[in-house]
Design a protein that fits this description.
CATH topology of the largest domain: Beta-Lactamase
Shape: elongated
Radius of gyration: 27 Å
Bound molecules: ligand C2E, succinic acid, fe (iii) ion
CATH architecture of the largest domain: 2-Layer Sandwich
Structural class: alpha+beta
Order of helices and strands: HHEEEHEHEEHHHHHHHHHH
Distance between the termini: 40 Å
């Protein structure tokens, strides 16, 4: 098992069981860290390490029950993809389904054991303890699994079972609140994406447009040097750039031909309408979305709308989404025009470098056009959902 950054300084000197003093120090050390940890992966790693050290197991994992997919998942190390198994499979599945602890000296002699994970990881499981844990409503949400005792006997003891049960009851509660927070975040993202889709569906555009704009925006943000958190924030927020189109009448929005000057003036209001819808929120995502809604039609040379701001006075979110949006709009059929060929699109970006668009971003855009086209093809309106 990979070491992680949470290894405590305390280390047992030999492979003997811990005395109660050691154990208390260990538990207090971990509890303080667990209480402050909000990232799910880190939390799972901490809990696994705590269990592992408490009972001197070689490995310890926390399995989480995904009721929607009817699967169990775990992560064996930082940065490694999660492992998923059907919820009813193996010893962990059995323990969860039967709501019973398992205590086994040799897993391979137990026909409930599923050797698939061993096969995937190249590991040899022998002794094993599985303890389900519950949320505050008493529902089972996952299980602790400890594998292979590190003492000479290679067998877990009744004390080990007792300690791990303690760890499990504590972990169940900590995990529950973290999982709830994640669910709230996921819900927010879904609501935001749906809001964006509403804006687009009014103008008969597919959900794929906003998916593409979101992905292009994140790539450009990363190439620009934004950190991954902020690039992800822009990805989540950018689908709302046209939310203000909800206020534009069909006769303008769906007009098959060119807009009159007056109609275009009305159309331009979608930027401020969107901004006004979003600006009241103190949520990070909605604040970013408000900026994007207001500024995605600003131009580097100051000739955009609604404010006519110029250069770096346009927020980087606005400058990035402008490119992502126009790239996608040009490559797509619209009620008022046919999709353009890639060459013609690239020519426009070269012409508009330093005029409509931030020159540095245009360079990044051109340098990475392959990656962007790849996304376009993956979410094309023909083959997409
Ligand atoms: P949209 O269709 O999503 O286009 C977004 C932006 O992509 C446009 O912002 C423009 O910068 C660029 N773009 C799209 N198609 C073309 C094109 O054929 N040539 C060039 N040079 N650029 C293009 P813009 O111009 O501010 O327009 C904002 C929105 O207003 C458009 O979003 C569309 O919903 C609407 N719109 C603009 N012009 C017309 C039009 O002639 N007829 C209709 N029915 N709607 C229009
Ligand atoms: C939009 O820019 O509003 C939608 C464009 C699309 O479907 O590509
Ligand atoms: C995110 O969920 O990735 C963004 C954080 C936030 O604003 O809630
Ligand atoms: C639109 O306004 O329809 C699309 C352009 C954009 O996505 O801003
Ligand atoms: Fe727009
Ligand atoms: Fe758009």
């Amino acid at each position: 098992m990979q070491m992680n950054e949470y290894n405590l300084e305390f280390k047992p000197k030999s492979k003997k069981s811990l005395n109660s003093n050691d154990l208390l120090r260990l538990i207090f050390g971990y509890v303080a860290r667990i209480a402050n940890e909000k990232n799910l992966d880190n939390l799972l790693m901490l809990m696994a390490d705590m269990g592992k050290e408490m009972i001197m197991a070689d490995r310890c994992s926390l399995w989480i029950l995904d009721r929607e997919k009817n699967e169990l998942w775990t992560r064996v190390a930082h940065g490694v993809n999660e492992i998923r198994i059907p919820a009813n499979s193996g010893l962990v599945g059995h323990s969860i389904a039967s709501e019973q602890q398992l205590f086994i000296d040799d897993a391979y002699k137990d026909n409930r054991f599923n050797p698939d994970v061993d096969k995937k990881t190249g590991y040899r499981t022998q002794a094993i303890i599985v303890i389900p844990f519950r949320n505050s409503e008493g529902e089972i949400i996952g299980a602790y699994q400890a594998i292979n005792k590190m003492t000479r006997s290679k067998k877990f003891t009744a004390k080990d079972l007792e300690y791990l049960t303690l760890a499990a009851s504590y972990s169940g509660n900590s995990l529950e609140s973290t999982l709830l927070n994640l669910e709230i975040e996921e819900t927010q993202k879904e609501i935001i994406f749906t809001m964006g889709e509403i804006g687009e569906s009014r103008s008969k555009e597919t959900g794929n447009h906003i998916k593409r704009v979101a992905d292009y925006s994140k790539i450009l943000a990363l190439k620009y040097g934004m950190d991954d958190n902020e690039a992800e924030l822009l990805k989540i927020a950018s689908p709302m750039h046209d939310i203000g189109k909800v206020a534009i009448s069909d006769s303008i929005l769906k007009k098959p031909g060119k807009l009159t000057d007056e109609e275009f003036d009305t159309m331009k209001s979608h930027t401020e309408v969107g901004y006004n819808l979003l600006k009241g929120s103190s949520r990070k995502i909605l604040k970013a979305a408000a900026i994007v809604a207001r500024q995605h039609h600003e131009k580097w040379n100051g000739r955009g709308y609604p404010d006519g701001v110029k250069g770096e006075d346009i927020h980087i979110y606005g400058r990035i989404t402008a490119i992502a949006d126009v790239f996608d709009a040009l490559g797509s059929d619209r009620c008022y025009k046919k999709a353009w060929e890639l060459d013609r699109i690239l020519n426009l970006f070269k012409e508009e470098r330093g005029n409509h668009f931030d020159p540095l971003l245009v360079d990044l855009f051109i340098d990475n056009i392959g990656e962007l086209v790849h996304i376009r093809d993956a979410y094309s309106d023909v083959y997409g959902e």
